[in-house]
Amino acid sequence: MRHGKIVKTPKARLSLLLLLLSISAIYNFFSTELVLRLVFILSYTLSLEYLLWKIRGTTPFVPLAGIITALIIFLLFDNISPFYYAIIPVTLAVVQKQFLRLGAQHIFNPAAFGLYTASLVGYPTFWWGVSWGWLPLILIIIGGVWISLLTLKQHYIIFPYIASSLAIYVYLLGAIPTISNLAGAFLAGSFWFYTIIMLPEPVTSPHKNKTRVFYAALAAILPLVLLSRIPGDTMLLTLLLGNFLGFLLEQRKEVFPS
Q: Membrane-spanning regions, if any (predicted)?
């Protein structure tokens, strides 16, 4: 694929959105450590991708998927610990994507897999880079709508998930929510990042419309079942379980190369 075509792909657009979110987070929380953290995570992710390509005999290509994985881990992983702790989720994410496959298809969202499994051994996920204010919220909604809805047409995942989440919220609240209630519950960057960036990721989410609706509803309901029963980040675990069930239901082919 020529470079001119690459920059027009959904992966390239998502990479740009994640980079803008990363730069805005660094600007808001500015420290040289955050700059070093971003450079380290990107460099280590891409170096490990290249090394594993060589081991597997894969012809190298523009590593947009690796850039996306690195930037998501930067935005969500513990930003208080030393920057080199990010080796743990990055290694888990990249190794899983390269080797935990059925045929040519990797099953799990790489960043979610790396972050969740790292959290099980004491390296938490904070969602810090997407939930600090209005700017990331606006960037996520505008960029996510452009990429996931207008380009990838993932409305069979996004709208059922929002509707299911709203229904569950009303049920738990036990009353008709006010505008203030809804704003407090749903105007959070972390909610929208999960909803329109991570959940509808096209390689590891279902491709058939009926399965997409099931996947979205499951992603909304499962946190209620898993909360306080399972260690680690419940939302990430829900996403991974959805990836696995969607894969089993469809046994699909890959949409684009990883």
A: 60-77, 107-126, 132-150, 157-176, 182-200, 212-228
